[in-house]
């Protein structure tokens, strides 16, 4: 399974792609999409959409994982991230790829074991889990890889639970949202 994690942001959108084979995870690629603050909003969102679509067409992920929006004290910042996130989800939908969402708390718990981990702890675990020796280069790319790893770990747990229950699924095996009209592909 190929999983693409995306950490949306208007100035810098991080991406990370991993491959899951059995219990093994490996990084296929990671980086970011940068937009200029000199551009207008619609041009910046268009660039994010187009670049994410190219990445999806290139890596051909089975799933795209994005971070759920966390509303804190800065509503303006949350709105801008939400707009970038919408471009990412739209690109995935147009490519016929399902989207899964996780909160920062879920990601930190899956990788570090508690929800109050800082960015350095998350990046350390991403590098350890994926056996990366080189620097990831940005916290956004690291967060995107963490999102993909979080989903891989959750899928592993779902598989084990299904296996333990005798293989009879509850009909709730996956929360993956399939885009409309993809014909079950």
Give keywords.
alpha/beta, 5 strands, single chain, globular, Nucleotidyltransferase, domain 5, 185 residues, 5-stranded mixed beta sheet, 46% helix
Structural summary, described in words:
By secondary structure, this protein is an alpha/beta fold. It has a single domain, classed as Nucleotidyltransferase, domain 5. The protein contains five helices and five strands; from the N terminus they run βββαβαβααα. Strands 3-2-1-4-5 form a five-stranded mixed beta sheet. Helix 2 links the parallel strand 4 and strand 5. The longest helix is centred in the last third of the chain and has 26 residues. The radius of gyration is 16 Å and the shape is globular. It starts with a strand and ends in a 21-residue tail after the last helix. About 4% of the residues have low confidence.
Number of strands: 5
Shape: globular
Strand order of the biggest β-sheet: 3-2-1-4-5
N to C succession of SSEs: EEEHEHEHHH
Which structural class do the helices and strands define? alpha/beta
Overall structural domain count: 1
Broad CATH class:
Alpha Beta
Q: Quaternary arrangement of the chains shown?
A: single chain
CATH fold topology:
Nucleotidyltransferase, domain 5
Our measurement of the CA-to-CA distance between the termini, rounded to an integer number of angstroms, reads 14 Å
List the helices and strands and how they pair.
Layout (H helix, E strand, L loop, with lengths): L1 E6 L4 E10 L2 E11 L6 H19 L3 E5 L7 H20 L3 E5 L1 H8 L7 H12 L8 H26 L21
Parallel strand pairs: 1-4, 4-5
Antiparallel strand pairs: 1-2, 2-3
